[in-house]
Amino acid sequence: MKLQHLVLALVLAPLIATPALGQPAADVKPYVPDLGDLMGAAQLRHFKLWFAGRSQNWELARYEIEQIRKSLDAAANDYPKLGDADIAGLIKTDGYPALDAVKSAVEARSNAKFGAEFDRLTQACNACHRATHFAFIQIQVPTSSPFSNQSFVPPPK
Asked: Domains along the chain?
């Protein structure tokens, strides 16, 4: 066998012997984050949203709202029901409207409206926790930042 053929065989063998690229094996299940992980991410974003809004970093606030929405979307999709609790329904009727109201305040660049709507969002989080039997998880308006490595002040233009 010529050296060229041997090299070609060594390069092509793994491609021929494996399933089509990008196709998961039939017994591999896609990763689904735990509900606690999704909500922990939302809580972190809630915190960052507060400091972004209070610092009038409206671009960062919009970003954090989008990230919270992604966590809520995933929770509603992956955990629509939890025992007798309708998580998807609670997110639809309470979570999204509260988040949309914060978004409206951010788009208006209104500090006063932002504070009021952020309180409403925080109350919606706690109402959902009570309805899903997680009342022991109480969210509040942040009082200080554990992120000394992030500035929430908008960058200079």
From this structure: 35-131 (1.20.120.290)
